[in-house]
Each structure stands twice: as C-alpha cells, then as structure tokens.
C-alpha cells in the first residue's frame, strides 16, 4: 500500500494530491523486571484482572516497569547492589517494589517473606513509601539469591516496549494478593512448567509470549539444572513469538502507515506439522533476511509449508512475491481480487467466504475457516480458529484503520466489525501491532468511533456544507491533529457510504 520516500511514505493520490505521511519509528524499550518464584518443581503464576490495560485475563509472573520513583531510590542509594550492572540494579529496585505491591512479598536475609498488611497498604497508596520502609528496615531488599536467567525485549510491533530482566528465586511462603480498588492479580497458583504449557496448548489459559518461551525451555530438563544452565548465559532473543498455540508472529519491517512500523506475518501450525504463512510481507533486504531465517527454522523442525495466504492485496501485506518465492515455494491462497494483483504462482487456490482448511500437527489437526471482511480493501479475508482470528486490517491495538475512499467501503467495514464481534473470539491477531487480548472491548470501541464519525459527516452535510474540506473540518473537530489529507480521504469514504445508504444525494 505504500512506498518509501526517504523518511516519508507516499501512500496514494487523494483529491489530486500525493499524500505524504511521516514514517513511524519503533519506540525505545523501557527497562522492566519480572520474577519467577519457585517452590520445588513448581512456579508461581498469577492471574491478571480483566480491567488491566496490558494482557488482561493472562497468567503471568509478578513484575513491572522501572518508574521514576525507582530511579530516584537508586540515585539516593548508589551503594545498593554494587555487584550488578546498572540495568540490573534498576530492574532489581523495580522488582522489589512491585513484589510488595502485587504479591505482598519481599526478599530478606532469611529468604522471601510476607510484608505486613499495614506497610503494604502504605506502598499501594504511594510508591514513595516503599523507599521509606526500606530505609527504616521494615522491608527487605536482599538480592543474594535473585538471579537473572533470561532477558527479553518487546518486539517492535508494540507501541509500548520493555527490556525485561527475568529473575528467579526460591519461595516457601504464600503470596498475598491485593483486594483493594485497583488490584492487578485476583488469583494465583503453583504449577509445574509442564502443566502450564499443557493448559496453554489446549487454549485453557493465556500466557504472555515471553513466558511461553521460558516454559518451553524449563521443560527440557530438571528445574534446577535448567535454571543453572539458563542463568549462565541468559538468552536475549525472541526465538519464537507465539501469540497462541499454533499462531507464531514475525513482525516484518514494512512501509506501512503510522503508528505502525511493521506488518505481522503469521505462521500457523506447530513445529513438525503442516504450516501456513500468512502475509509474508517482506520487500527490503532486512525483512527478506528475517523471513529467510524463520523459514529455515520452520523447515528444520520437520514442517512442510503447505501454502502462503495473503489476507488482501496491499503492498505492506503482499511484499515482493518474486523475492519471497526464492526463499520458499508454496501454493498461494487468496481471494480473486488479491490474486489478480500479484504474480501468479504455478499453483494457487482462490479463497471464498466459508472455505476452510486443516493443519495436521503432531497432536492432531487445527481447523481454520475463511470469512470475508472487504471494507478496508476489496477481497480482504480473515481466518478463524479456536485460538482466535487473524483479523488483517480491520482493527489495531493502537491507532485506527484507514478505509480508502478509492477502493474501500465504509458500510462494509462497519458490517465486518460487527461480524467479528459476534464471533466472540478469544484473541485477535491483527495485521499490525500487538495481539488484541480483549476483542469485544476493542471492536465495540471501533464501532462506536466509526459510527460517531459517520454521523458527524452526515451532520456536516445536513447543515448545508458541500465543500469536502469544510465537511472534514467540522466532522473532525475533536481530532485537530489528524493528518489533513487522511481526514479528507476518510470524509470522502463516509460520504460515499452515506450516498449508498440513500441518506444524501
């Protein structure tokens, strides 16, 4: 859909103008920390409440980001943790404060201990009280047994990124969850990595991608041996980004509209089984090399790539088909509208509403169904399974979706949003940005936003305005910073839909 022009993207011509949009750049990651508390062969995992903005209803380790309070505490105490590097020191401060807040625990010379309810309440009311309690000797900060066993950095697909230190330590006491007004966790359990991975593979629980990688590694041997092995040389690379069982993501750098910087290429299926690549959008050398490396991993696992699926025909999803075909060969599956715009492969399959396919794996097969949602682009499809929905360019966790006036259909787009919401998916796997963990909430937001804008354009027309820039100015009064040509284009899309609905002439 877009082509690079220096630091700008030339999207298309709108109202006789070439639209130039500033390229977005991935945000720098913020330091953060998590802790895997161990009790024998079991680890502690906590359930995040449904109201938290990040990973609601997921099971995760306690932890959080380094705050200004944490940085201030470290500046006040340069003597803390002298044998750790600066990143680890900051991560430790954040972790110890977060442990008090989230699970009521603190590391003392006698091991992990429960924090008194009164002290914890003080910290929950104001983070600064944690430092006061530490300085008074009421809360411990002993780090002797806290070891780093891996690091992970949020991939560039996410608007908010973290460089996370994963610590681990033995714990022989029970956590205490906060029952106040804004708790982060509402349940906890001790379980083996094998148990948790089994439940996740069966779509019974949700676990963040970095922790899935950790669980997989822990399952390779006895707990103590694996911790020792992992801590000697902590891994820092995201070898696999698994949003759900059988749904792996490769964020490929593309020329796409901001705030996105990457297009999500999905690999469906499990290692050793049949695999499908969805939207391998690689075009430049960096993206092609990333794709090549991942394809080699897939093939080395014993898998067969049975097809490439393109959700729609935009350049930031199709990529360079000829260059991709030099990396791997597979039949291309897409709608007729998409197939018409790309070089024909020796074998292809035209996808239509209601089509389906099964991917056979080591533990059975997974059923995927095709549904059409053509509002953003003619011939756009989504893929539906028990794990969730590959939702293409219908929604994004951050930003909005452009419905181009020249080829989009605003009415069809809204119908598609309603349809996706009715499916009550467990997760949405969008074309850009992080996984959508609360599909119903986000889809409802999109529907309300679009319908409100639709009525604002209609009101502007009804008031007597006929000049498109004037209609756009009135309809977008609440978003004065929106790109002027994007506002014009979306206004045109709404006007086109209103004419088709018979509401304006």
Major sheet attributes: 7 strands, mixed
Question: Count of DSSP E strands?
Answer: 24
Q: What is the chains' assembly state?
A: single chain
**Structural class based on helices, strands and sheet pairing:** alpha+beta
The percentage helix is 25-40%
Compute the separation of the termini in Å: 31 Å
The radius of gyration is 25 Å
Indicate the low-confidence ranges by residue numbers: 1-18
Class of the largest domain in CATH?
Alpha Beta
- The CATH homologous superfamily name of the largest domain equals Nucleoside Triphosphate Pyrophosphohydrolase
Instruction: Please tell me what the overall shape is.
Output: globular
Number of domains: 3
Number of H- or I-type helical stretches: 15
Averaged pLDDT, please? 91
CATH fold label of the largest domain: Nucleoside Triphosphate Pyrophosphohydrolase
The fraction of residues assigned to DSSP E strands is 25-35%
Describe it for me?
The protein folds into 3 domains: 30-232, Nucleoside Triphosphate Pyrophosphohydrolase; 242-437, Ribonuclease Z/Hydroxyacylglutathione hydrolase-like (Metallo-beta-lactamase, Chain A); 443-505. The chain is built from 15 helices and 24 strands. It has helices at 68-76, 86-103, 117-125, 128-135, 193-201, 209-218, 223-232, 285-300, 315-318, 321-327, 336-339, 410-422, 439-462, 468-475, 484-500; strands spanning 3-5, 8-14, 17-22, 30-39, 42-48, 59-60, 63-65, 105-108, 111-114, 147-153, 162-170, 185-191, 242-244, 247-253, 262-268, 274-278, 304-309, 332-334, 348-350, 356-361, 364-372, 381-384, 389-392, 428-430. Strands 4, 5, 6, 7, 10, 11 and 12 form a 7-stranded mixed beta sheet that branches. A 7-stranded mixed beta sheet has the order 13-14-15-16-17-18-19. The protein has a 5-stranded mixed beta sheet with strand order 20-21-22-23-24, with no helix packed on it. The chain is globular.
């Amino acid at each position: 859909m877009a082509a690079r022009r220096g630091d700008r993207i030339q999207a298309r011509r709108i109202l006789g103008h070439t639209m130039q949009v500033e390229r977005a750049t991935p945000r720098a990651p913020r330091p953060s920390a998590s802790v895997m508390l161990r009790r024998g062969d079991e680890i502690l995992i906590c359930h995040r409440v449904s109201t938290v903005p990040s990973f609601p209803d997921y099971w995760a380790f306690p932890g959080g980001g380094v705050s200004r309070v944490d940085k201030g505490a470290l500046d006040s105490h340069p003597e803390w943790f002298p044998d750790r590097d600066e990143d680890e020191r900051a991560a430790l401060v954040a972790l110890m404060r977060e442990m008090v807040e989230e699970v009521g625990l603190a590391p003392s010379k006698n091991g992990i201990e429960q924090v008194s309810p009164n002290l914890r309440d003080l910290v929950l009311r104001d983070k600064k009280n944690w430092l006061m309690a530490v300085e008074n000797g009421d809360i411990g900060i002993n780090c002797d047994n806290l070891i780093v066993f891996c690091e992970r950095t949020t991939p560039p697909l996410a608007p908010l990124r973290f460089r996370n230190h994963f610590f681990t330590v033995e714990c022989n006491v029970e956590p205490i969850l906060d029952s106040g007004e804004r708790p982060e966790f509402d349940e906890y359990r001790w379980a083996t990595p094998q148990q948790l991975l089994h439940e996740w593979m069966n779509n019974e629980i949700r676990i963040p991608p970095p922790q899935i990688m950790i669980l997989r590694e822990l399952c390779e041997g006895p707990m103590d041996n694996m911790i020792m092995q992992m801590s000697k040389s902590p891994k820092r690379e995201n070898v696999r980004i698994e949003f759900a069982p059988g749904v792996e993501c490769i964020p490929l750098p593309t020329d796409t509209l901001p705030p996105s910087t990457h297009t999500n290429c999905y690999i469906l299926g499990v290692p050793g089984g049949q695999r499908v690549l969805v939207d391998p959008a690689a075009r430049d050398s960096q993206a092609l090399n990333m794709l090549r490396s991942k394809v080699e991993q897939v093939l080395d696992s014993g898998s067969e790539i049975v097809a490439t699926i393109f959700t729609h025909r935009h350049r930031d999803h199709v990529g360079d088909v000829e260059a991709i075909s030099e990396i791997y060969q597979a039949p291309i599956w897409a709608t007729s509208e998409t197939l018409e715009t790309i070089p024909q492969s020796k074998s292809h399959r035209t996808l239509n509403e209601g089509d389906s396919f099964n991917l056979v794996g080591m533990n059975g097969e997974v059923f995927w169904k095709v549904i059409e949602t053509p509002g953003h682009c003619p011939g756009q499809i989504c893929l539906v399974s028990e794990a969730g929905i590959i939702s293409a360019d219908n929604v994004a966790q951050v930003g909005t979706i452009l419905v181009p006036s020249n080829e989009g259909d605003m009415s069809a787009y809204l119908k598609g949003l309603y349809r996706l919401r009715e499916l009550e998916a467990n997760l949405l796997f969008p074309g850009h940005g992080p996984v959508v963990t609360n599909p119903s909430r986000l889809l409802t937001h999109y529907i309300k936003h679009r319908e409100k804008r639709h009525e604002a354009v209609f009101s502007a027309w009804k008031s007597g305005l006929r000049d498109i820039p004037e209609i756009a100015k009135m309809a977008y009064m609440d978003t004065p910073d929106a790109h002027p040509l994007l506002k014009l284009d979306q206004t045109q899309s709404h006007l086109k839909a209103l004419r088709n609905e018979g509401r304006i002439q």
